Amino acid sequence: MSRSHELFEAAQRHIPGGVNSPVRAFRGVGGDPVFFERAEGAYAYDADGKRYVDYVGSWGPMILGHAHPEVLGAVEERMRKGLSFGAPTEVETQMADTVCELVPSMEMVRMVSSGTEATMSALRLARGYTGRDKVVKFEGCYHGHVDSLLVKAGSGALTFGEPNSPGVPAALAELTITLPYNDIAAVRETFAEIGSEIACIIVEPVAGNMNCIPPLPGFLEGLREVCTEHGAVLIFDEVMSGFRVSLGGAQGHFGVTPDLTTLGKVIGGGMPVGAFGGKREIMEHVSPVGPVYQAGTLSGNPIAMAAGLKTLELISEPGFYDRLTATTSELLAGLRERAAAAGVPFTTNQAGAMFGLFFSAEPVTGFDQATACNQEHFKAFFHGMLERGVYLAPSAFEAGFVSIKHGEAEIQATLDAAAEVFAEIAG
Ligand code: PLP
C-alpha cells in the first residue's frame, strides 16, 4: 500500500474529502491523490519518494521552479524579523511599486491573501463605484469561490458538475449574467438591453479553468468597447494569466487595457497572496480613502511580500518569457506529434507559458467544445503519465504550467512517457 493511500485515509477523518481544495481529491480522474513531501526545480517528490516532472506548479505560482534558492533566501531573511505586524511595512510599498510598473493599467493596488479575495473585492468595488448591482461573467470562467461568481463556473465547480453551488442565494445569483466565452455578439446584445444596470464585466482574458482557452481575435477588444460605451467597469481576472502569459499578463500580450485587474498565484511566489488594482479614479473608492470597505488581518504580510517580490524580480530578467514560452511550445508540438503518430485525436492550446491539452480532433475555442472532449482518454492519459512520473493537473478542465526549470531532459522524459501512453490509449 502506498504512503499516499495511507495519508489519504488518515486525512479523510477530519478534513472533508481529505483535501483543503476540491480538485486535489482526484475526483475528476479517479484514484487516490498523490501526497507530496517536497519539491525542487521542475520536480515534485511524493510521500513514497517517487519523483514527478511537475506541470501543476502549485496551480501556477511556481514559475521559477520549486524551492528557488533566492526566493527561499528572501523569505528566510524576512522571517527572522517577525512573521506579521498588522501595520505597514516598506516591503508592501516596494511590491505595489513593482506591480504598477509591470502592469501599467494598475495605477494603484491593494494586496490581499488569495485570488478569491481579489475578485470578491474587485466586484464590490465595481458595484460601489458604479452604483449598479448586475455583473457579467462567462461560462466556464472561474474567479474563485465568490458567491456572485460561483455561477456556471469552471475549475472544481465544473469537474464536479455543480456550476451553481448550494448556499449561493438565488437572489444574488440572479444579479450574475453568464454569457458564452468568446461570443462578443452575446455581450453586445445584453448591453443593448440592460447596459445601464451592469456594474462590470469580469473575464479571464485567457480562460484557464475550463482548460486553457485563449480569447478569439476581437473578443477582449469588444469587451473594452462595450464597457467604455456603457460606463461599466472592465475587470480582467489575471489571477492565473498574470505574469504567466507574459510579464505584463494577458493585457500586455493582447494589448487591451482593463479598468481593474486581479492578480494571484505568481505574485506570491508560492505564498498566499492576491491583489486587485487599476485606475486611480476607481481605486480611490476603496477604504480608507473611499467608502467601499475592504480589509485583511494578514494582507500585505511581509513574508509573503518578500517571496512575491523576489519572484517578480527574477521573472523580469531579459529573455525569461521567451525561454518559458519556447519550452511550452516545444512540449506541445512534441505531444501533438506523438498523439498523431498513435492515431489519437488530440489538440493543444497555448498562451505564453499557459497550456491546454484536449482529446479532440477539432480546435477548442469555447466551453461547449471543452466539455465535449473525450474524458475517458484524458483520464487514461493522466494516469498513464502519473505512473511514468509526470504530474499533470488531475482534471480535464485545468490549464497546465511549465516553469523555467523545465529543460530538455524534462521535456524529453515527458514526451517519451506520452508516446507510450498515447499508444496504450489507441489500443
Ligand atoms: N481567478 C482565477 C482566474 C483563478 O484561476 C483562481 C484560482 O485558480 C482564482 C481566481 C481564485 O484564486 P484562489 O484559489 O487563490 O482563491
Automatic annotation (TrEMBL):
Keywords: Aminotransferase, Cytoplasm, Isomerase, Porphyrin biosynthesis, Pyridoxal phosphate, Transferase. Its cofactor is pyridoxal 5'-phosphate. InterPro entries: 4pyrrol_synth_GluAld_NH2Trfase (IPR004639), Aminotrans_3 (IPR005814), Aminotrans_3_PPA_site (IPR049704), PyrdxlP-dep_Trfase (IPR015424), PyrdxlP-dep_Trfase_major (IPR015421), PyrdxlP-dep_Trfase_small (IPR015422). The modification N6-(pyridoxal phosphate)lysine is found at K265. The keyword Nucleotide-binding does not apply. PROSITE patterns: AA_TRANSFER_CLASS_3. It is an enzyme of class 5 (isomerase). GO terms for biological process: protoporphyrinogen IX biosynthetic process. Pfam families: Aminotran_3. Its EC number is 5.4.3.8. GO terms for cellular component: cytoplasm. It is found in: Cytoplasm. The keyword Cytoplasm applies. Pathway: Porphyrin-containing compound metabolism; protoporphyrin-IX biosynthesis; 5-aminolevulinate from L-glutamyl-tRNA(Glu): step 2/2. Its main location: cytoplasm. Homodimer. Belongs to the class-III pyridoxal-phosphate-dependent aminotransferase family. HemL subfamily. This is Glutamate-1-semialdehyde 2,1-aminomutase. It comes from Marichromatium gracile.
